C-alpha cells in the first residue's frame, strides 16, 4: 500500500474487494457543528437572497449574478477551497460539498457559483505557482475577481485533448489563438484557465485575463436550461500573455484539465442531493394540497411510492457522496501518499482527488441520473401543472438535464469507472485478482461462501452486498479473460460492468452508514434508514444479478454459460423483500417531515 497511515487502508475502489465494516465510513450523521454552520449560512443565503431573485436570474437581468457573487463573497462562501495563506478558509471537502448542496434550489446560480469556486479557481489553487496564487487567489476568494474554465472547443468536447487552440512562444510571451466554446461565466469572468497546444502538440494550461488584448466574448447561448447562467464563446485572437501566466508545466495541461474535473464530478454528484431534496419538498407540498377524486393526491398509493423512491434515492446519493468526501478529507489529514510527505495541503488534496477518481465518477453518474429521476417523478406528481411555467418544477426539469452532459458526459464517466479499476488492478494497487481467486475458491467449495446472516440490524443487506461484490468480480474476471486485449474498445462490456460497480458502491455505502447509525442512535430513530437500506439493497442486488447474467450471456458461448449461470445462482441467495410495506412507511415519513426526513 502506498499510504502512510491506517486511514489509507480505505483507498479508492477497495470497497469492491474488502468486506464491509473493515473501515468505518464518514456519514452525514457525523457532520461537525462547524460544517453544519457553513451549510446553514449557505442555505440561508440560497433561500433568502438567491431564490427571491430567480425571475431576474432566469431573465438574465444584467448584473444580478455578479451582485449575488459579491454578496456570497462577503459571507465567505467563495473562499472555502482557497488556502488560508491566500485569503481563503481552506476548509475540508465535506464542508465545501455541503455548501454546494445548499445552492441547487436555483441551478443557474449553483452552476455560476460552482464554476467560479470550482473549475474556475481551483486550477490556480492546485497548479498555480507562488506568484500566481498571491496575485489571483485573494481576489477570487472574495469575488472581486471572477473565474471561468475554458477547455471545450467546437471540435473537441469529450475528446478534450484534441483541442486546436495554439500557444506560440514569442520571446517573453506566448501568443494564443483559438475559440473556446460553452464557457460558463464567460459573460462576466475576469480570469480564465485556458488550455492550448504549445508547438501544436503540447497541451498546456494558461491564465488569460479578460483585459488581455485580443480577448473577446461571444454572445450568450440560448439554452434548454440553466438559462440564467452565462455560457459564451471565449475568442482568443493573437492574445499575447507574459510567460509567467503559464499554469503548471508545458505539456502537462492534461493533469490540470482532468484533475480539476474530478472535483467537478464530485460536486455535481453531491449537489444532486440538494436538487433532489428541493424537488421532493415541492412535490410533497403539492401532493398534500392538490385534490382529485375528493382526496389529496398524496393519499394515492402510486404517488406515495414515488415519494418513497425519491427519498431512497436521496439517502443513497447522500451516503455515497459524503462517504467519498470523508475519504478525501481523511486522506488529506493523514498526510496523503507516502510520496507526499512534506508536500503542501493542496498537493495532498489533488492526490486525494486522483485516489478517489473512481468514486468521483460514480457520484457524477449516479447523482445526476438520480436527480433526473427525482425531478421527473416530482413533475409527474404535479400533473399538467408541472408542465407549465407557473410551477418551478418545469424549470428544474430543464435545468437538471445539463448535469449528465458537462464535467465529462455520463458515458465518458461510465467508461472511466471500470477502466480505472482495472488499471489499478493491473498495477497491483487494487488486489482484484486475489479477490477473484478467493471467489473462485468459494465457488469450488460452497461452504466458504459467506451465506451466513449475522445478527446485526442490517445483516441480510450486508450479506447481499458481500455477494454482489463476488458476482461482479466473478463476471468481470470472465470479461477480462475473454477480452483483455480489446477491453478498452468494448464499451458494451465496460458499460455493463460500470453499472454493476455503481450498485456495489451504493450497497456498500448504504449498508455501512445504516449499520453504523443503529448503535449510535437506537433502533427507533433509525427505523426509517433501515427501511430505505432494505429497499435500496434489494433493488441494487437485483440489478447486479441481472447485469451479471446479461453480461455473461453476451460474451460467452452456450456451453460455458450453463456453468456460469450455475455459479451466479450459488451466489444469488437473496430473496425479494416486501417493497410495498417499506415504500409506504417511507412515504409516511416523507409526508410527516414535509420533505426529506433524514437529518444530517
Ligand atoms: C451549459 C454548458 C456549460 C458548459 N460549461 C463549460 C465550461 O465552463 N468549460 C468548458 O470547458 N466546457 C463547458 N461545457 C462543455 C461540456 O463540458 C461539453 O459539452 C461536454 O464535455 C461534452 O462535449 P460535447 O458537447 O462536444 O459532446 P461530444 O463529446 O461530441 O459527445 C456527444 C455524445 O457522444 C458521446 N461520446 C463522446 N465520446 C464518447 C466515447 N469515447 N465513448 C462513448 N460515447 C462518447 C457523449 O457521451 C455524448 O453522448 C459546457 C457545456 C454546456 C452545454
Rg, please? 24 Å
Q: What top-tier CATH class of the largest domain fits best?
A: Mainly Alpha
| CATH H-tier superfamily of the largest domain | Butyryl-CoA Dehydrogenase, subunit A, domain 3
Structural class: alpha+beta
Helix content: 55-70%
Task: Tell me the CATH topology of the largest domain.
Answer: Butyryl-CoA Dehydrogenase, subunit A, domain 3
Number of domains: 4
- Mean pLDDT equals 94
Q: In total, how many beta strands?
A: 10
Judging by the overall fold, what is the CATH architecture of the largest domain?
A: Up-down Bundle
Note the main sheet: 8 strands, mixed
Unreliable residue runs? 1-8
Structure characterization notes:
The protein has 600 residues and is an alpha+beta fold. The protein folds into four domains: 33-145, Acyl-CoA dehydrogenase/oxidase, N-terminal domain (Butyryl-Coa Dehydrogenase, subunit A, domain 1, Orthogonal Bundle); 148-247, Butyryl-CoA Dehydrogenase, subunit A, domain 2 (Beta Barrel); 253-409, Up-down Bundle (Butyryl-CoA Dehydrogenase, subunit A, domain 3), CATH 1.20.140; 413-593, Butyryl-CoA Dehydrogenase, subunit A, domain 3 (Up-down Bundle). It has 20 helices and ten strands. The strands form two sheets. Strands 1, 2, 3, 4, 5, 6, 7 and 8 form an eight-stranded mixed beta sheet that branches. Strands 9-10 form a two-stranded antiparallel ribbon. Strand 2 and strand 3 (173-184) form a beta hairpin. The radius of gyration is 24 Å and the shape is globular. The relative contact order is 0.11. Residues 1-8 have low confidence and may be disordered. Residues 115, 149-152, 157-158, 182-184, 223, 231, 402, 405-406, 409, 411-412, 491 line the site of flavin-adenine dinucleotide.
Amino acid at each position: 500500500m502506498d499510504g502512510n497511515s491506517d486511514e489509507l487502508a480505505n483507498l479508492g475502489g477497495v470497497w469492491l474487494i474488502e468486506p464491509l465494516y473493515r473501515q468505518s465510513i464518514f456519514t452525514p450523521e457525523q457532520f461537525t457543528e462547524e460544517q453544519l454552520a457553513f451549510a446553514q449560512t449557505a442555505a440561508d443565503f440560497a433561500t433568502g437572497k438567491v431564490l427571491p431573485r430567480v425571475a431576474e436570474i432566469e431573465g438574465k437581468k444584467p448584473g444580478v449574478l455578479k451582485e449575488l457573487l459579491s454578496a456570497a463573497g462577503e459571507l465567505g462562501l467563495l473562499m472555502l477551497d482557497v488556502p488560508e495563506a491566500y485569503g481563503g478558509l481552506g476548509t475540508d471537502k465535506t464542508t465545501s460539498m455541503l455548501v454546494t448542496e445548499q445552492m441547487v434550489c436555483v441551478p443557474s446560480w449553483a452552476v455560476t457559483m460552482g464554476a467560479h469556486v470550482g473549475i474556475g479557481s481551483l486550477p490556480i489553487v492546485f497548479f498555480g505557482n507562488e506568484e500566481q496564487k498571491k496575485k489571483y487567489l485573494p481576489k477570487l476568494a472574495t469575488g472581486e475577481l471572477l473565474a471561468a474554465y475554458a477547455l471545450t472547443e467546437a471540435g473537441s468536447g469529450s475528446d478534450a485533448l484534441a483541442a486546436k487552440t495554439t500557444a506560440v512562444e514569442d520571446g517573453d510571451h506566448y501568443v494564443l489563438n483559438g475559440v473556446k466554446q460553452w464557457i460558463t461565466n464567460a459573460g462576466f469572468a475576469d480570469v480564465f484557465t485556458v488550455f492550448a497546444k504549445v508547438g501544436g502538440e503540447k497541451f498546456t494550461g494558461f491564465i488569460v485575463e479578460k483585459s488581455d488584448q485580443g480577448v473577446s466574448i461571444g454572445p450568450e447561448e440560448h439554452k434548454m436550461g440553466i438559462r440564467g447562467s452565462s455560457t459564451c464563446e471565449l475568442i482568443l485572437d493573437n492574445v499575447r500573455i507574459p510567460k509567467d501566466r503559464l499554469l503548471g508545466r508545458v505539456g502537462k495541461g492534461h493533469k490540470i484539465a482532468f484533475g480539476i474535473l474530478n472535483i467537478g464530478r464530485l460536486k455535481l454528484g453531491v449537489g444532486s442531493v440538494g436538487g433532489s431534496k428541493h424537488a421532493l419538498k415541492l412535490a410533497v407540498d403539492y401532493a398534500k394540497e392538490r385534490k382529485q377524486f375528493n382526496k389529496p393526491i398524496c393519499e394515492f398509493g402510486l404517488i406515495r411510492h414515488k415519494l418513497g423512491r425519491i427519498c431512497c434515492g436521496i439517502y443513497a446519493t447522500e451516503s455515497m457522496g459524503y462517504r467519498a468526501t470523508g475519504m478525501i478529507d481523511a486522506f488529506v489529514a493523514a498526510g496523503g501518499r507516502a510520496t507526499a510527505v512534506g508536500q503542501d495541503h493542496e498537493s495532498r488534496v489533488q492526490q486525494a482527488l486522483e485516489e478517489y477518481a473512481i468514486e468521483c465518477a460514480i457520484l457524477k453518474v449516479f447523482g445526476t441520473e438520480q436527480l433526473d429521476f427525482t425531478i421527473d417523478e416530482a413533475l409527474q406528481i404535479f400533473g399538467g401543472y408541472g408542465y407549465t411555467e407557473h410551477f418551478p418544477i418545469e424549470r428544474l426539469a430543464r435545468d437538471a438535464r445539463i448535469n449528465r452532459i458537462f464535467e465529462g458526459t455520463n458515458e465518458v464517466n461510465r467508461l472511466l469507472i471500470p477502466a480505472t479499476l482495472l488499471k489499478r488492478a493491473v498495477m497491483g494497487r487494487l488486489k482484484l485478482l486475489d479477490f477473484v481467486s478467493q471467489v473462485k475458491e468459494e465457488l469450488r467449495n460452497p461452504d466458504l461462501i459467506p451465506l451466513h446472516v449475522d445478527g446485526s440490524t442490517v445483516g441480510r443487506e450486508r450479506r447481499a452486498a458481500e455477494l454482489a461484490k463476488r458476482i461482479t468480480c466473478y463476471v468481470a474476471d470472465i470479461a477480462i479473460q475473454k477480452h483483455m486485449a480489446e477491453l478498452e474498445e468494448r464499451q458494451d462490456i465496460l458499460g455493463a460492468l460500470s453499472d454493476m460497480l455503481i450498485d456495489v458502491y451504493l450497497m456498500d455505502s448504504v449498508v455501512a452508514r445504516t449499520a453504523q447509525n443503529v448503535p449510535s442512535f437506537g433502533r427507533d430513530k433509525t427505523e426509517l434508514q433501515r427501511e430505505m437500506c432494505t429497499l435500496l439493497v434489494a433493488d441494487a442486488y437485483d440489478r447486479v444479478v441481472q447485469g451479471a447474467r446479461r453480461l455473461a450471456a453476451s460474451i460467452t458461448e452456450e456451453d460455458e454459460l450453463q456453468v456460469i449461470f450455475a455459479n451466479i445462482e450459488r451466489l444469488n441467495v437473496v430473496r425479494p423483500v416486501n417493497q410495498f410495506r417499506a415504500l409506504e412507511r417511507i412515504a409516511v415519513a416523507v409526508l410527516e417531515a414535509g420533505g426529506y426526513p433524514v437529518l444530517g
